[in-house]
Amino acid sequence: MPGLFDVPSRPASSIDELRSQAAGCTACDLYRNATQVVFGEGPASARMLLVGEQPGDREDLIGRPFVGPAGRLLDEALEQAGIDRTTVYVTNAVKHFRFEPRGKRRIHQKPNTTQVVACRQWLAAELTLVEPGTVVCLGVTAATAVFGRAVTISRARGREHEIDGRRVIVTVHPSALLREQDERAKNEAMDAFVADLRLAVTASGA
Fold first, then answer.
1. What is the largest CA-CA distance in the chain?
2. Is residue 206 pLDDT above 80, yes or no?
3. Is-contact 162 204, C-beta < 8 A?
4. Residue 196: closest CA among 172, 179, 175
5. How many other C-beta atoms lie within 10 A of the C-beta of residue 195?
6. Could you tell me which residues come within 8 angstroms of residue 14 by beta carbon, excluding any fewer than 6 positions away?
7. Under DSSP, is residue 130 helix (H, G, I), strand (E, B) or coil?
8. Would you kindly state where each structural domain of the chain is located, as residue ranges?
9. Which fold is adopted by the domain 4-204?
10. For a designed S-S bond to 12, which of 18, 77, 157, 163 qualifies (C-beta 3.0 to 4.6 A apart)?
């Protein structure tokens, strides 16, 4: 799997046009069960672009990225880091929700490599149109999509990377903090997450 920035983007003159193209994507099997494509959103000239894993249940129903519990935690962390969410572009490596039905609930399942690769055309095109100076990878799936290889969060975290002239920061996905049961550990994880976002601010020169 080549580095993301080497992947040819699908021709589009704007994010709106790209979003329309992606709405009919059938490149992998996830479109069959998901409600809709959940595309990225934010300024087309954003200096910072955040990449998550995939939409969750709430995002799948509403059609916007990071509007569920993980999104609320991300908003809180961004605020603590001094980042206005309206100034950054937020998207996911995979645009359809992958889940396993359990009664009336839909349980999140991690996208597989085939699904991540199939969706990289859209992420590459978003990066081409937005042209952010800094990309923040939220979690392993996002980092794998951007780097084009397996990435270990513990090894990649806490420092600035460069891929084809773009600065890349790797951190955890906010959902990881939601799964933390111990309050002290959760607070420490939040502090570390905010520190990663502040590193991204420094990298972007803001």
1. 48
2. no
3. no
4. 172
5. 16
6. 44, 129
7. helix
8. 4-204
9. Uracil-DNA Glycosylase, subunit E (3.40.470)
10. 18
